[in-house]
Amino acid sequence: MEGLYDSDKRKLLSSLSHASIFLSSLVISVGIPIAILFVTEDPVVKENAKEAINFHFNVWLYSLLLIPISFLTFGLANGLWFLVHCGLSAWAIVQCLNTPEQSFRYPFIFRLL
């Protein structure tokens, strides 16, 4: 079943799903993995798109929770969270490019989908 799907297309779409977080922290960037989820038939790409959507929700949730703490730490808490979510996204992209037959799972997130 795995041989039926194009590996390069899988790498591109899976990486694009996870890279969409770099476009902005706004609601617009979550539209990319949502569109990929509905357009593709590849089960691995669908799983990566769902995981990217879940990660977007988690980034927004943790950012909202860190706003009050950020005032106490002079922005340090939000800055650290920015580095963590960028690092996790970069890790996801590298994993999608190196192992396209396996979907990436972010550690320590809530999964709504």
What's the arrangement of secondary structure elements?
Layout: H1 7-19, H2 31-39, H3 43-72, H4 76-98
Describe the structure.
The protein is an all-alpha fold and 113 residues long. The chain has one domain. It is 66% helix and 0% strand. It contains four helices and no strands. α1 packs antiparallel against α2, α1 (7-19) packs parallel to α3 (43-72) and α2 (31-39) packs antiparallel against α3. The longest helix is centred in the middle third of the chain and has 30 residues, at 43-72. The radius of gyration is 15 Å and the shape is elongated. The model has no long low-confidence stretch (mean pLDDT 91).
Structure described in brief:
With 113 residues, the chain is mostly helical.
Percent of residues in helical segments? 55-70%
Mean pLDDT: 91
Note the run of SSEs as H and E. HHHH
Taking all Cα atoms into account, the compactness measure Rg is: 15 Å
CA distance, first residue to last residue: 24 Å
Can you tell me the number of structural domains? 1
Total count of helical runs of at least 4 residues: 4
Number of strands: 0
Taking pLDDT < 50 over at least 5 consecutive residues as the criterion, the unreliable ranges are none
Q: Strand pairing plus helix content: what structural class?
A: mainly alpha
**Largest sheet features:** none
Residues in β-strands, percent? under 5%
What best-fitting shape do the alpha-carbon axes yield?
elongated
